């Protein structure tokens, strides 16, 4: 028997208009292919090819996201885990709270930002871009065997930061790791000092700053190579993007020799 999205009861009182009362709790497992707001459910499942948008929803059990499905969640509270397998896209953000783990496996991309996860954040064998931004993680971050780009910025991690066998080396910085940083994430906070000679290596990010070892600037007469340090500007960053600014050109730009 299907359980309706909202249980509604009509109360007819003498001399009064009909009142419509919505129950705040939905029992057992809810199949979500639509938008859901500030209600409470036992368990929630996003079926194959489904799109589920959650805002302020409380889940007493687990969220499961199935093949080619999409979950967009903000300000949610989940007592158990979020588990995905072969999902298309997953987004959990804006002060969401997960009592268990977030387990993302064999899918597309995912963004986990500005959230609290009491246990582990696991990203395993996925093909799309992954972002872990400004989270509090009670356990480990484990990122294994993924093909897309991996960005890890400003997380507080009570356990370990473990990155292994990813096609692209993870990048980011500003993370507080109380355990150990391992394998591909062991040097995540390393950066090129502006005092060093210009190099032809890639730009690096660490301590909230973007360090560009060499950038070519075309002038009226010739091309001059510079090195620069840009400040991460969280007040300008929106929708998962990172914005940097050069606050003092005189202090932060240095001409290459």
Automatic annotation (TrEMBL):
Domain of life of the organism encoding this protein: Bacteria
Position of the signal peptide: 1-27
Keywords noted in UniProt: Signal
Protein name as annotated: Uncharacterized protein
Originating organism: Nitrosomonas halophila
């Amino acid at each position: 028997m299907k359980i309706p999205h909202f249980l509604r009861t009509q109360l007819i009182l003498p001399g009064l208009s009909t009142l419509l009362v919505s129950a705040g709790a939905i029992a057992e497992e809810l199949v979500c292919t639509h938008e859901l707001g500030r209600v409470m459910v036992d368990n929630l499942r996003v079926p194959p090819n489904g799109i589920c948008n959650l805002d302020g929803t409380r889940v007493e059990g687990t969220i499961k996201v199935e093949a080619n499905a999409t979950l967009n969640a903000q300000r949610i509270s989940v007592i158990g885990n979020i588990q995905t397998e072969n999902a298309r896209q997953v987004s959990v953000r804006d002060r969401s709270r997960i009592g268990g783990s977030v387990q993302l496996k064999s899918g597309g991309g995912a963004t986990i930002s500005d959230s609290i996860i009491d246990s582990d954040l696991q990203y395993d064998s996925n093909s799309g871009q992954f972002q872990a931004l400004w989270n509090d993680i009670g356990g480990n971050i484990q990122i294994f065997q993924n093909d897309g780009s991996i960005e890890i910025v400003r997380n507080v991690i009570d356990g370990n930061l473990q990155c292994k066998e990813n096609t692209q080396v993870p990048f980011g910085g500003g993370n507080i790791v109380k355990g150990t940083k391992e394998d591909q994430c062991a040097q995540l906070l390393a950066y090129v000092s502006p005092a060093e000679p210009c190099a032809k290596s890639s730009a690096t990010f660490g301590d909230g700053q973007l360090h560009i070892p060499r950038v070519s600037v075309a002038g009226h007469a010739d091309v001059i190579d510079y090195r620069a340090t840009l400040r991460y500007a969280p007040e300008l960053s929106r929708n998962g993007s990172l914005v940097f600014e050069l606050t003092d050109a005189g202090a932060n730009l240095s001409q290459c020799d």
